[in-house]
Amino acid sequence: MLKDPIVEEVRKYREEYVAQFNFDLDTMFNALKAKESQSGLNYEKRVFKPYHPNQREQNITPNNALNAVARRRVGRASLPPQF
Fold first, then answer.
1. Which residues of 18-28 are buried (b: 16+ CB within 10 A; e: fewer)?
2. DSSP of the chain
3. Per the CB 3.0–4.6 Å rule, which of 12, 27, 68, 83 could disulfide with 21?
4. pLDDT > 90: what percent of the chain?
5. pLDDT at 52
């Protein structure tokens, strides 16, 4: 298998970086969060809702299903307000 010099360089720098934190992910994470807070940039915080596979099936009624299909085909902007 051929060795890609770019991949080898990235691996070398990754190894050096994690060695600074003695290969401890918690320490590395805390250092990154501290660096992030010192940067002064505003980062988006997302809250993910848990996925429940049966939740969509419970909420679908024939009328809602037709409205969903109509929205996909036409787009919301061109539909009357009842949709």
1. eeeeeeeeeee
2. -PPPHHHHHHHHHHHHHHHTTTT-HHHHHHHHHHHHHHH-PPPP---PPPP-TTHHHHH--HHHHHHHHHHHHH-GGGS-TT-
3. 27
4. 39
5. 65
Q: Kindly list the distances between the CA atom of residue 53 and the CA atoms of 10, 20, 50, 56, 62, in Å, as whole numbers in the listed order.
A: 39, 42, 10, 7, 19
Residue that the structure tokens 């990754």 belong to: 14
Contact 71, 79 (CB under 8 A): yes
Contact 21, 27 (CB under 8 A): yes
Q: What is the pLDDT of residues 41-62, one digit of tens each?
A: 887 777 877 766 665 554 555 5
Task: Please state whether the predicted TM-score (pTM) of the whole model is above 0.70.
Answer: no
